[in-house]
Design goal:
Length: about 180
């Protein structure tokens, strides 16, 4: 891990930011994408960076940025040269305050000028757990205003349910990323 950050910047010309509140499973998803193995959950205090080689042979760099409240203020510093944002939401978290925080953070990201016309992939994670919201609950809870709907449309936003504990689900995410990346050259 003691390698220079410059290696990550120059090696890959496709940068993906993985963002979301703390505890939603971003790091678990990142390392499942990279290694196909489950890791022990640990809060991200800064960031994790991994390079993935997709089938289309173009290396991508995924930046998993910590989602604790004090870290979210730093997200803006990672936006430069981002070509895709993966926004992760915990589908088991029914706390109204956390849901509102997640919606607010997503809306903030969608409004950043640096991310204009950048595709977003919204991942509703932890859908394998019994307390996960179903499709209707997700739609009802994450109702969006007409203004936000127009912003989302301009970003080519895709949303899907997933779980970091399943290789099948991770393969679907990789296929989705390939489709978005290839369609966005």
């Amino acid at each position: 891990m003691g390698q220079s950050l410059q290696q990550y910047i120059s090696y890959s010309d496709y940068k993906i930011l993985m963002l979301g509140l703390d505890g939603v499973g971003k790091t678990q998803l990142l390392y499942r994408l990279k290694t196909k193995k489950q890791i022990a959950p640990n809060p991200t205090t800064g960031f994790n960076v991994e390079i993935l080689q997709l089938k289309h042979k173009r290396p991508i760099t995924i930046w998993d940025i910590g989602g604790q409240e004090q870290r979210r203020e730093l997200w803006v510093h990672y936006l430069q040269n981002t070509q895709l944002v993966m926004y992760v939401i915990d589908s088991t978290d029914r706390d109204p305050d956390r849901i509102q925080q997640s919606k607010n953070e997503l809306e903030k990201l969608l409004n950043y000028e640096q991310l204009a016309n950048i595709p977003f992939v919204i991942l509703f994670n932890k859908t394998d757990l019994p307390q996960a919201m179903n499709n209707k609950e997700i739609q009802d809870i994450f109702k969006i205003s007409i203004d936000l709907k127009q912003i989302i449309t301009s970003h080519k936003t895709l949303a899907t349910k997933t779980t970091a504990t399943s290789n099948k689900s991770v393969k679907q995410i990789l296929k989705l990323l390939e489709r978005v990346i290839i369609g966005n050259k």
